[in-house]
Design a protein that fits this description.
It is a single chain. By secondary structure, the protein is mainly alpha-helical. It has 22 helices and no strands. α2 (33-49) packs parallel to α6 (164-175), α3 (64-77) packs across α4 (97-113) and α8 packs parallel to α17. The longest helix is centred in the first third of the chain and has 28 residues, at 129-156. It is globular. Mean pLDDT is 90; it is low at 1-12, 435-439 and 509-516.
Length: 516
């Protein structure tokens, strides 16, 4: 196919996932496209769930799987006043109230089916087959209730800018991206709930429903505190909307009431006790844990290879250092977003949303790279808004997903999830034709060379890890190399997405036009 061929659905494509939807369109079978996509996504998640999970068979604390189960146990059996203070040495609850309510709801269902799954104290370390099936089912159910509908509605709302095939390809690709699947349904967590509320936030922004946008964003960070990585971008967007409108003060007051009401409702059970509110704050923001945990591909962990920051500075100094570095990294992007929205006309709405998506990527990636107490799983936070740009930034998002997946390998290796890791990595590469870009995308040759080089580096590290034992003096050498390499790549992605945000108003992309 010629390099400058049209993107309309009638042209053949070299991308396997696109060829599938072109085939359905040619057979006038568009009605089955979404059900097939959803069912395939469900099948993949269930198959991943058949493998191991975090901490399986490793007493006394086990892992994240046991933490989630234990929270169902304590929220079901204990009064609300003890949720954030009960036996903190054994997986004390350390996420915001919406996670606690979700645990209570899942615990209520578990009690109805089999109370032994969450019996107080007696169920610790429970790893029965039926309880595992239940836990896996809760992760899938919550994702398909919150995350999947948000993704579908968001891309379906892009019908004026994308062909039917392009929309279906984007939905399919986002639902099959491997990082979220392996963490939520392999390692085991409920990140899709937080990320689903983020997608709803962007969807409501595109629909100009700003009150609902504020409420959905509050739900995101009240489920997991990492949702605050998006806060500067959301704040800049909404503040600019208040400044650009004739009755902006009214909108500002409405937004304030919506935020206070949403957060207030979720903190309602503890609102009358200052001590309990302080306890929640201490548990949700554990400064005492240190600058980072384990080996995470952010700047502080990478720098620690040469400069032992935690030995040179106390915790408070590191908090100030990380706060300043994070702010310097995201402020330019937010200022650009603010003034873009201020100048926005009615015809610029889609452009403003595009800038907003870039800003969400840039602010959350800045937090991942520079903020205090970051986990390796937090790369899912900048990855979520980046996936909303998958139509405009095909090669960049494909590459970002690959590097993010590689950064998670040490965690997944410890969980015994090597086979699911490789299956999902190959599946993504095949479906998205990575690292070779689609023939219709004008990608600079230097980018292709860099992307192939990146792939070879990752394969080389995997090969060395599999066949070359590390020296006894450097037992973690492969994990450290993974951290340093991925950190460098994430810094490069931060620079790239900032560049794209600042130039997207001057150079409009070739959009996948709606078919006549």
């Amino acid at each position: 196919m010629p390099r400058k061929a049209s993107r309309t659905a009638s042209r053949p494509s070299v991308v396997p996932v696109q060829r599938w939807f072109q085939f359905l369109e040619s057979q006038s079978a568009q009605d089955i496209a979404l059900p097939v996509t959803v069912l395939f996504a469900l099948l993949v998640r269930w198959c991943i769930g058949l493998h191991g999970y975090s901490g399986q068979g490793t007493p006394p604390l086990y892992g994240d799987y046991e933490a989630q189960r234990h929270w169902m146990e304590i929220t079901t059996h204990l009064p609300v006043s003890q949720w954030y203070s009960y036996d903190l040495q054994y997986w004390g609850l350390d996420y915001p109230p919406l996670t606690a309510f979700q645990s209570w709801l899942c615990g209520a269902v578990a009690t109805y089916i089999d109370p032994s799954w969450i019996a107080l104290n007696a169920s610790r370390g429970l790893e029965s087959h039926t309880s595992k099936q239940f836990m896996r089912a809760t992760a899938i159910a919550l994702e398909f209730i919150i995350y999947v509908p948000a993704i579908v509605l968001f891309f379906r709302s892009q019908h004026t800018k994308m062909s039917w095939v392009a929309r279906q390809v984007s939905i399919f690709s986002v639902l099959l991206q491997p990082c979220l699947i392996l963490i939520d349904h392999g390692h085991f967590q409920y990140n899709s709930v937080m990320l689903g509320f983020l997608v709803w936030t962007v969807y409501f922004a595109a629909q100009e429903s700003y009150i609902l946008m504020a409420v959905s964003f509050c739900c995101s960070f009240m489920f997991k505190q990492m949702g605050l990585y998006y806060a500067p971008a959301v704040f800049a967007f909404l503040l600019a909307q208040c400044f650009r409108r004739k009755h902006g003060t009214v909108l500002f007051v409405k937004l304030g009431v919506a935020v206070v009401a949403t957060v207030g409702v979720m903190l309602g059970p503890w609102i009358t006790s200052v001590d309990q509110l302080q306890q929640i704050l201490v548990r949700v923001f554990p400064v005492a844990r240190g600058l980072y945990e384990d080996k995470v591909a952010n700047v502080w962990c990478a720098v620690n290879v040469a400069v032992k920051l935690r030995s040179l500075f106390d915790a408070q100094s590191l908090v100030r250092l990380s706060t300043c570095a994070t702010a310097l990294a995201f402020i330019p992007s937010c200022i650009h977003l603010f003034f873009t929205i201020r100048r926005q006309t009615r015809t610029m709405q889609s452009t403003a949303i595009r800038v907003f998506k870039y800003c969400l990527v840039n602010t959350s990636l800045a937090f991942f790279l520079f903020s205090f107490q970051v986990h390796e799983k937090s790369i899912l936070v900048p990855l979520a808004p980046a996936l909303l740009l998958i139509d405009e930034e095909e090669w960049a998002v494909n590459w970002f997903v690959q590097v993010a997946l590689f950064s998670l390998y040490p965690l997944l290796y410890v969980d015994g999830l090597q086979i699911p890791y490789w299956v999902m990595a190959v599946l993504w590469a095949f479906l998205r034709s990575c690292p070779a870009c689609p023939a219709h995308t004008p990608t600079p040759k230097c980018v292709m060379v860099l992307q192939w080089t990146s792939m070879l580096v990752m394969l080389a590290l995997h090969t060395a890890h599999a066949f070359v034992p590390p020296p006894s003096s450097l037992p973690d050498i492969y994990v450290v190399l993974n951290v340093v390499y991925c950190c460098a790549m994430f810094v490069a992605f931060l620079a790239y997405f900032n560049y794209r945000q600042f130039t997207c108003l001057q150079v409009q992309p070739t959009l996948k036009q709606k078919k006549d």
